[in-house]
Amino acid sequence: MSTITAELVQQLREKTSAGMMDCKKALVEAKGDLAAAEVVLRKKGIASAGKKASRATKEGVIASYIHFDKVGVLLEINCETDFVARNEKFRAFVKDVALQIAAANPLYLSREEVPAAVLNTEKEIAAAQVKGKPAQIVEKIVTGKLEKYYGTVCLLEQAFVKDDKMTIEDLRKSKVAELGENIVIRRFVRFAVGETVPGQEAEAPAAE
Questions:
Q1: For residue 160, what pLDDT is reported?
Q2: Given the DSSP bridges, would you call strands 159-160 and 71-79 parallel, antiparallel or unpaired?
Q3: Whether residue 21 has pLDDT greater than 90
């Protein structure tokens, strides 16, 4: 098998506009064959999704989902045209994402939104758990734990609750390929009955 170099990954990225990690995974699957890796990306709809990523998304929907009066989700997903915004497949995708948020409780949309202070805390916790091991091993373990953390708290990196073989980002890209338009999960908020609101301390009961 050919070595998967950074240069090879970059070549595939330039040809397909797919993300770096998607390109690397495709090259691994194709055993380093550039043409075969492009086919892999096209079959998964990733290449076409990458090419559409820069296109403006000014249409879409704001959707709500209430689960047994206990969990509520408000979600905005954008697309390019009102035609797609009214499409049943697009609406089904929006519903699936709302269900994902209700069930999996993501804290952020993507890893880029995770505050640096939170990441530093996670790194410190992970490093403390493997204290005493060689530095290079500690670094590798900490990186692995951070990737797992992203997959837990970031919506786009969470495993889809209806099919854990794909992430929400994989699902989004598949819909881009299927519907032929750029689709962006813009923002969301999740409420749960009785949850603690950040910055608000519970009031102490009044003394009798």
A1: 96
A2: unpaired
A3: no
> Rounded to whole angstroms, how far apart are CA atoms 86 and 75?
16
β-bridge pairing 59-67 and 163-167:
unpaired
Q: Parse the chain into domains and list their residue ranges.
A: 6-52, 59-111+154-192, 115-151
- Residues 173 and 49: beta-carbon distance below 8 Å: yes
Q: Which residues pair with 160 in a beta bridge?
A: 163
Burial 122-131 (b: 16+ CB within 10 A, else e): bbeebeeeee
Provide the CATH topology of domain 6-52: Helicase, Ruva Protein; domain 3 (1.10.8)
Tell me how far apart the alpha carbons of residues 99 and 67 are, in angstroms, rounded to a whole number: 9
Q: What is the pLDDT of residues 95-154, one digit of tens each?
A: 999 999 999 999 999 999 999 999 999 988 888 888 878 877 888 888 889 999 999 999
CB atoms within 10 A of CB 97: 24
At residue 36, the pLDDT reads: 85
CATH, range 59-111+154-192: 3.30.479.20
Q: Give the chain's largest Cα–Cα span.
A: 77
Angle at 57 (CA atoms; ends 52, 59), nearest 5 degrees: 135
Indicate if 59-111+154-192 has the same CATH topology as 6-52.
no
Which residues have a Cβ under 8 Å from the Cβ of 136 and sit 6 or more positions away?
none
* Predicted TM-score of the model (pTM): 0.70
